[in-house]
Amino acid sequence: MNATATPTLEVRGLSKRFPPRSGQAEAPWILADLSFAVAQNELLTMVGPSGAGKTTLLNIICQVDAATGGEVQFEGQTMRLGNGTLNPGWDCRFGYVTQDDNLLPWRTLIDNVTFPLRVQGKLNDQTMARVTELMKTVNLVGFERYYPHELSGGMRKRASLIRTLAYDPPIILMDEPFGAVDAQTRTQLQQDLLRLWNLGRKTIIFVTHDIGEAIALGDRVLVLSRSPAKVVAEHRINIKRPRDLSNVYKLEGFGDMYETVRKELL
Amino acid sequence: MTALAKTLPGRRSHARVWIPVGRIVLAIAFFALWEFGSYTMGREWLPTPEATAARIWKLATSGQLARDTLVTFSEATLGMIIGASLGSALPFVLRLSPRLMKALEPFLSAAFGVPKLALAPLFILWLGIGMPTKVVFVASIVFFLMFYNGMAGVLSVDPRLVAMARVAGAKEWIISREIVWNTTMPFLFSGLKIGLPRALSGAVVGEFIAADAGLGWYINNSRSLNDITGVMAGVVVVTILVILVNAALQRTQARKLAWRPVARDMVV
Q: ipTM, 2 decimals?
């Protein structure tokens, strides 16, 4: 897995600032000249302090939000982000697991999970079998007919995770998807994620403010600075897979890496 | 089994007994008060419940009740359908064009501010004293109720859900149908909740002003003949009609909004 050899996604010179507020001459830059690349099937994690512009970065990459400058190249297709109309999700090729689960409150769990498939007109026996398989993998069988408010936070997270996996986009962006759950559920969700990623390898950009999570999950970690976000360091994580996350601190090389990244984040 | 668990079912069955009993007691108290009022004030000022019931029965057997109720009910229903569909459709259109929304805003608030009752003479002039006048009158009341409630719903759509749906490949009309519609539905129901009784009373008031049939006409006609029992009978029938319509709405709402975490919508 060599990121520099065959990048599937490349971000070049990305910058962003929002329109100035009244009384403000110029709005601060959220992102300034940010560049990085992701290889096919790589699980790239990005760790940065809160408020570093991580969510903004992912919003721009999957075209939910416009950039002020720079470009993103994906599978040979270049997207100038400074102007023009946005195409959120790049025609369903980008999956985006957001910080909030964003489940539709009026739809049952199963209808939420199959929502993208239905919208894309791809709901058939084959994809339904895939959904059932995913539901089994993340232990949601038996809760198909429940509404989101009847489910626990962890279950909703898993639902939102497999909602994106169900339509099998080649690349998935994840924005602190396990931020708002308790420590045990979090470990379980991380383990689920690694298992799912192992089942059908795909490219993932996983953004978090948790150093441990970034190291435990990733093939490679990018360390982001405070706003305006820049890549200040890059580390390849050579902890061998499969990784047992229930005892992540005992994984070989974890402690040293944790210390290194922690210092870089200061 | 804990002590709490033991007491809970008992409490529930108590509630099941006490609520109907309480209602019956309140109803008896209400009728007693009415009876008392008519004895102290005199029957020519306030007819007794029996006299009122007898009048309603007489109207029912003669067929006049059915005729007048049907007239009022059709006016209210037609006006409701026209006003409610236009009023709830407009917010969906305006959502797609913020510029149009801004442009229309002052005109809509101005139109909302016009007292509809004051327009009645114009409606009569243009449309005569028949059904169309009342239908337009009712529609003009219901339209704004539904529009303002619908607008509040459309504005409360969660942009994160919309972004999620766009990334998942949803086109604009799917977002309207799936997200905007479902977010707005509870707001439209509260619009209907206020709108349905208003529609009926709008039709009745319309009939006060000019009509030759309908419950409002009957009430007004009785009044001009100094037939207070007739007035009272008409009022009671209109009230019963409102209660029935409300109950029907309540059932529909409970079914349509079953997904919501809270089930404490006002029943009143």
A: 0.90
